[in-house]
Structure formats: structure tokens, C-alpha cells
Amino acid sequence: MVAFTGRSNVGKSSLINNLVGRKKLARTSSTPGRTQVINFFKVEDKWIFVDLPGYGFAKVAKQEKARWGPMVEELLTEDRRLKLVVMIIDARREPTAIDLVMKEWLDECGVPHLVVATKADKLSSRQLQKSVIPIQDAFSCRVIPYSAATGMGKQELWQVFKRI
Q1: Cys bridge to 148: 14, 63, 124, 157, which one at CB 3.0-4.6 A?
Q2: The total number of structural domains that make up the chain
Q3: Around 138, how many Cα atoms within 13 Å sit in the side-chain half-sphere?
Q4: Torsion sign, CA atoms 153, 144, 117, 82
Q5: Is residue 95 over pLDDT 90?
Q6: Average pLDDT of 112-123?
Q7: Element (H or E) spanning 3, and its range?
Q8: What's the pLDDT at 28?
Q9: What range defines the domain where residue 26 resides?
Q10: What is the DSSP string of 26-89?
Q11: What is the Cα–Cα distance from 67 to 157, expressed in whole angstroms?
């Protein structure tokens, strides 16, 4: 099982759709906070992809947001099927305080994870190269640039999945 987490509107659902080659498997929207439950998708009879509600800004009631935390925490710390968490960051933005808290929490809980920088197609090659450096520095790890529009990073990410 692979879980996908990140701020609201960072491209989690688009990344999942691109990885599996289906446009509408995971619900996408330009409005932050559309993923409001934990969604499980069986992929190739071998994988379970988990689309988690986004953290940070989302146009939903505070009570609803407060309900997400315990649900997500339980899945990430207690589900023995979980092999990896893909932490998604927008390549055009530096990590926020909440992104850093999530990374620190994953480290402290011993949850295996990697960082993927989505929306890479929205930057020139030079801009992308420059934007990945502060993300890598902030998280002290390698970052995989990804574009759901062009498929950049798709093969690299599948290679990671096949090793787990």
C-alpha cells in the first residue's frame, strides 16, 4: 500500500490518475479540499494507492478538517500494509511550515516516505532545477520532480514502488 499526502490542491489526485493511466480514477478539482475521505484504489491487483485528504488550506468546515487528522494518523501509523508515503510538494513553492511538520512527523514515527515535487511542467528546466534545491535542502532528501501533464517522473516513481 502506498499513501499520497500533501497540502490541499498540490496535485495528489492528478498524480495518482497519471500513474495508473486513468483520467478520473481519483477525483480532481481546482477547489482545494475536495478529497474529504481516505480513498483506496486497487491498482494492477498488486498495489493499493491511498489518496489522503490534503492538509493546510481547504474550503471545508473546521470540524471536518479536525476529523481528518486522527483518521490519517491511524492509517499512517497502524496499517501494516503501508509500505510507503509519497509526500507531495508543489515544485513552484518552497515547503511550508506544515509540510516540514508532516516530514518531521513521518521521520519520528518511522514511516517510510519520499518527496515528489508536482507541477514540474509549469516551470522551465532551469527554473525546475533551481526550485528543487530548496525543497531537497528543507527535507534533507532526494526529490523526484513530477508532471501529471507530461509524465515526467512517472517511470522513476514506478521504479521506487517496484523496489518496495
Answers
A1: 14
A2: 1
A3: 21
A4: positive
A5: yes
A6: 96
A7: strand 2-6
A8: 60
A9: 2-162
A10: S---SSTT---S-EEEEETTTEEEEEPPPBS--SS-HHHHHHHHHHHHHHHHH-TT--EEEEEE
A11: 30
Return the C-alpha torsion angle 12, 95, 142, 140, nearest 10. -140
Provide the 3-class DSSP secondary structure of residue 98: helix
Least confident of 25-29, 47-51, 89-93, 107-111: 25-29
The residue-averaged pLDDT of 77-100 equals 93
Mean pLDDT of 92-97: 92
- Mean model confidence pLDDT for the chain: 86
Q: pTM for the full model?
A: 0.86
Three-state secondary-structure class, residue 145: strand
Answer whether 95's CB lies under 8 Å from 101's CB.
Answer: no
Please return the burial class of 135, using the count of CB atoms within 10 Å of its CB with bins 0-12, 13-18 and 19+: buried
Amino acid letter at 16? I
Look up the CATH number of the domain holding residue 109.
3.40.50.300
